[in-house]
Structures are given as C-alpha cells and as structure tokens.
Amino acid sequence: MRNSSRSAVDPFIVMDVMEAARRAEEAGRRIIHMEVGQPGTGAPKGAVEALAKSLETDALGYTVALGLPALRQRIARLYGEWYGVDLNPERVVITPGSSGGFLLAFTALFDSGDRVGIGAPGYPSYRQILRALGLVPVDLPTAPENRLQPVPADFAGLDLAGLMVASPANPTGTMLDHAAMGALIEAAQAQGASFISDEIYHGIEYEAKAVTALELTDECYVINSFSKYFSMTGWRVGWMVVPEDQVRVVERIAQNMFICAPHASQVAALAALDCDAELQANLDVYKANRKLMLERLPQAGFTRIAPPDGAFYVYADVSELTDDSRAFAAEILEQAGVAVTPGLDFDPVRGAGTLRFSYARATADIEEGLARLEAFMKARG
Ligand SMILES: Cc1ncc(COP(=O)(O)O)c(C=O)c1O
C-alpha cells in the first residue's frame, strides 16, 4: 500500500541504541544504561495505593475528555504551590502524556504548511510530530553562549506560526530564566507566532526554580507530564494549560482523538501530586548523580560539558573525539558496556559531534558507568 509523505518521519535513534543494549544483555553482558531518559524508579507508593483502592470500587470507564475534575483542580493548585500563579482549573487539560499534548497543541494551533520554530539541539519528537501533521519544523541552531537555548535573534524574520521551547531542555538540561523566557514570548508574539512551552522537567532542577511561561503570560500553551518528576513514564498521563478561549477547541479535538487520557493513570496521578517526600528522595538521587557526572566525566576525558540546571542529562561536545556520534556510541556500548545516546537524535547537523549521557538511574549504576567510561577512554588513548 502507498504511504503518505507525511509518514516519512525519522526513527528515534536512542531506540536503536536501546535495542542494541537489549541484544547485548540477552547475550549475557551487563549494560549500564545512560541512554534512557526515564527515572529508574516506579510511580510513587501513594499513587499505586490509590489506584489499587479504586480498582476495587470503580469501573474506570472513560472520563470526560478534559480529564477528572479533581485532577484538574489539584494541578491548578500545584501552580500556586510551585510558582505562586493563580490558575483557573478550567484551563487545565489532562492529556495522554505530554506527547498527547503536542498532538493536541499542534492540531489546535496550526494549519498544514505552517512553520514552527524549535531549538536545535532539542527533543527529537517535536520535529517528527510536526512533520507527521503536515507542518514544517524550522530548526533554530542555538549557540553555546546562550547555553543552547534559542534567543529572539535566532528566529527574527522567519515567519513562524509557532515557537516551541523547553526549559529545562532535553538534551542539555539548561533553563530559561524570567528575562530569557520573557524575551522569547515577546518576540514570538510580535511575529504572530503562538508560544508553546514544554515544562516536562519542572520539579527536577538543581540551582534555581524553573520558570513557567504562565508567570509571564496567559497567551501560551504550557505542556507538562507525570513522566519525569512524578516518575510515571509508562502511565501515559500529562497535562496542558491553555488560554481560556482555547479550552473548547482543545476539548473537541481531545474528544475525537483520544476520548480521554487513561482513567487509571489519572487516579494514580492525582495521588502522586501529594507524594512529595518520595519524589524529593528521587530528586536527591539525581542531585548526587549530577555531582558525580560533573566531577568524573571530565576526568574520563569528556571535558566539554556544561552543568545542567535541571532534568537528568549531560550533553557533551565530543567533536574533538569523533565526527560520527552514532559510531562512537556504538563503540562505547561494545567496548565499555555503557549505552549512551548519539547527539544526532537532537541535532541533525551538529549532533554528529555530541553525546547525551542520562543520569536518571540509581547512583551505584552511575558510579559503575563512570568507571567504565574512564577505563574505555584511557584504553582509547
Ligand atoms: C523534552 C521532552 N518532552 C516530552 C517528552 C515526552 O514525554 P511524555 O512521556 O510525557 O510523553 C520527553 C520524553 O523524554 C522529553 O524529553
């Protein structure tokens, strides 16, 4: 059968690395996973218990498309707790992960052929989802002096219908402060571009609190998820905050595209919002891991790294070591038994000279991974 031209999206290269790691494990090797962008921990205990209880009494059928009212209200309260923002719960839409949020946002905001700016390096699926929807992703190559975040000059005169930012970002972990976020919002709005802020790594921040776009404007879409801070990747539940006059538009699309986010996951997510002690303990692990990474990656020979403000990644410039990050990642997997992600996933051009290391796993694994990387680099000379 014929395929649409829209369907010709690129694979997620990290998935290929994961498959190679799985094969090595099947053959009996112990692989240290620094490729996967997900917590090693499961959902918080309180979330699992709340779901277990509701399984006894609730049929868990469809919810309304915008999600359980109690969950929308609790998320609105989170904005008061985290940022001092007073948010109308009616503006909160529960989504099947932030990935579901992207589909809803891009469909609600853009027409076929519209151009949407995304930072490079950046999360690969933005580009692929935009393409699959018949939209045009416009890579904005970011500069090291801007900590690989876009600035207004990067998209001046580009005739964008939308601008998508992420703070903390994947793969760099860098954040936009108030002034930087404000400048982007202003420049996007002046160009008539809708502003979308991916805030999925909020809660996982080290030096300063992450800024939500909602502190600066109500005229934006904010996308978030229970996958990262709340440690619930496989549950497929996230949320989006949209302007009041956009709620009905998004609701109609959500009704037709998904009906609703998984009901069971919404029940668990509601309880997860009150599991701060356990989630802060996860954060303590990331903090310890980050410290180890920043000390020992340079010792191993990965010297061109910047301290991440948030998330659980270190993005390393390895262009002095290779011009083929995919082959280099394969070599590291083969010889050191450490799975890492080639930068090409995040930046189709400069990513040939970068790698992303994830430190979301247990500290013992990170220590072992770093020891192996040191030995590998020493042997490589
Ligand atoms: C920046 C960013 N946005 C979105 C996602 C997708 O997350 P979700 O599990 O909420 O669909 C990821 C996953 O790694 C990510 O890194």
UniProtKB/TrEMBL annotation:
Cofactor requirement: pyridoxal 5'-phosphate
EC number, UniProt record: 2.6.1.-
Entry keyword annotation includes Transferase: yes
InterPro entries per the UniProt record, alphabetical: Aminotransferase_I/II_large, AspAT/PAT-like, NHTrfase_class1_PyrdxlP-BS, PyrdxlP-dep_Trfase, PyrdxlP-dep_Trfase_major
Domain Aminotransferase class I/classII large: 31-373
A single GO molecular function term of this UniProt record: transaminase activity
Keyword vocabulary terms for this entry: Aminotransferase, Pyridoxal phosphate, Transferase
Catalytic activity: L-aspartate + 2-oxoglutarate = oxaloacetate + L-glutamate
Pfam families: Aminotran_1_2
Family: Belongs to the class-I pyridoxal-phosphate-dependent aminotransferase family.
Name of protein: Aminotransferase
Organism (species): Ruegeria alba
Lineage: Bacteria, Pseudomonadati, Pseudomonadota, Alphaproteobacteria, Rhodobacterales
